[in-house]
Design brief:
The protein has about 450 residues and is mostly helical. The chain is built from 20 helices and 4 strands. Strands 1-2 form a two-stranded antiparallel sheet. Strands 3-4 form a two-stranded antiparallel ribbon. The longest helix is centred in the middle third of the chain and has 34 residues. The N terminus is likely disordered. Keywords: Membrane, Transmembrane, Transmembrane helix. GO terms for molecular function: potassium ion transmembrane transporter activity.
């Protein structure tokens, strides 16, 4: 009788496998939620039963672990969006704006951060986890689940849209390091203009070192990410408050009418500038993609209490600076800081952009890993770089492909990156549209 039951089970499994092979939609296998192993001196090797799901972590249950995850999320998730003040404002304007234009553009940035990042992502989208995991393919798994009563054609469409969104996110993995690192190094031009010809070579060297360091894994260098980024956000906040107090009329940017009126007034040029405005939210996909690494509450806490106030007031400070002197539009971020702090801020900005690039690269590894699990990507050799966090992985082939693409962007397209708002408008509107559709 036992033999018959086993045979029956085997037959059922064979039938399921055959049905999956005949289906044109890959089987969406949910990845297990990322876990953090509690290792103590008395128990150096934790067992599987001692793993703690990050989705269960709240301030009330385990405050010390919650605080640690919040600090780490500041370094890993928000590095990209936290370095956007380096280049957003001077990307929007290719001319010297008047005070009303400054207020209107800053208002667009503020309400983009409020509506898109705070409400849409930090509050709503973080609720849509797939067994604790987030990201494009995790959401695809929710929508194509057998319990969801959708037609086969609709599910196939969702899968195709998810693949396109993932491809664009990988493109962001090559674009973001190039833009971020170049924007940080260009701060040298204020104090040392003669170094302009060395900007690109220095950027290439930093990028090569960054990608070569990936083999060591984020677990070895991630311990320093949180404190460095916290210092960065603290600097942004202080500089922004200081500049805002000099021209408090910039606070009119909190009025949504200023943003709407600016678009009506600028018309076609204002539409193209929306691409630059979207750059203020670049990297926000990491809020959802890295959900399984930290949990929704640490991510929300980091955004609302640290990151959001810092970038918000820094944009206000840059707007206040341009109201005082519109000729400083070439690099309002570095012009807004005191002269004595230029070199420390250049060093801190370079570290912050490297960390921001690290976050995007790590997200690309996770994305490819999920795609392989869904049988939507050719298999690559994957290395797990951490004994405690299952989500920290390294894929050599993807790493080197991204490195080559980033170097090509830096060497061949750095001028186009800064002069074409049309490029940003198309790329980021398409990316947002795909995320909405998914």
């Amino acid at each position: 009788m036992e033999f018959d039951e086993e045979s029956h089970v085997d037959n059922e499994e064979d039938n399921v496998d055959q049905q999956r092979k005949r289906s044109s939609i890959p089987d969406v296998t949910r990845r297990t939620a990322s876990i953090i192993t509690r290792i103590t001196p008395e128990n150096p090797v934790a067992t599987r039963n001692e793993h703690l799901l990050v989705t269960d972590i709240t301030p009330c249950r385990n405050f010390s672990l919650f605080f640690g995850l919040t600090l780490r999320s500041i370094g890993v998730i928000f590095g990209d969006i936290g370095t956007s003040p380096l280049y957003v404002v001077n990307t929007i304007f290719d001319y010297e704006p008047d005070p009303s234009q400054c207020i209107g553009a800053i208002s667009l940035i503020i309400w983009n951060l409020i509506i898109v990042v705070s409400i849409k992502y930090a509050i709503l989208i973080l609720m849509a986890d797939n067994h604790g995991e987030g990201g494009t393919f995790a959401l695809c798994g929710l929508l194509t689940d057998e319990k969801i009563k959708l037609s086969r054609r609709v599910k196939l469409t969702i899968l195709i849209v998810s693949l396109v969104a993932a491809a664009m996110l990988l493109g962001d993995g090559a674009l973001t390091p190039a833009v971020s690192v170049l924007s940080a190094i260009e701060g040298l031009l204020i104090d040392v203009p003669s170094i302009e010809s060395w900007i690109v070579p220095i950027g290439v060297v930093i990028i090569v070192l960054l990608f070569l360091a990936q083999r060591w894994g984020t677990s070895r260098i991630g311990i320093a990410f949180g404190p460095i980024m916290f210092l960065w956000f603290l600097s942004l906040f202080i500089i922004g408050i200081w500049r805002t107090t000099m021209r408090p009329e910039i606070l009119k940017a909190f009025n949504p009418w200023e943003a709407f009126h600016y678009l009506l007034k600028e018309k076609k040029r204002g539409f193209y500038q929306i691409g630059g405005v979207f750059l203020s939210a670049t990297g926000l996909e990491a809020l959802y993609a890295d959900l399984g690494h930290f949990g929704r509450w640490p991510v929300r806490c980091a955004w609302f209490f640290v990151v959001f106030p810092a970038v918000l007031f820094n944009y206000l400070g840059q707007g206040a600076l341009l109201i005082s002197d519109r000729s400083l539009i070439d690099n309002p971020f570095y012009h807004s800081i005191p002269e004595w702090s230029h070199w420390p801020m250049i060093v801190l900005a370079t570290l912050a952009t490297i960390i921001a690039s690290q976050a995007v690269i790590t997200g690309s590894f996770s994305l490819i890993s999920q795609a392989i699990g869904m049988e939507c990507c050719v298999p690559f050799k994957i290395y797990h770089t951490s004994k405690t966090i299952i989500g920290q992985i390294y894929i050599p082939m993807i790493n080197y492909i991204l490195m080559i693409l980033t170097i090509i962007i830096i060497v061949g397209f750095q001028k186009m990156l800064w002069s074409s708002q049309q490029f940003y408008t198309c790329a980021f509107c398409t990316l947002r549209g795909i995320n909405h559709g998914t």
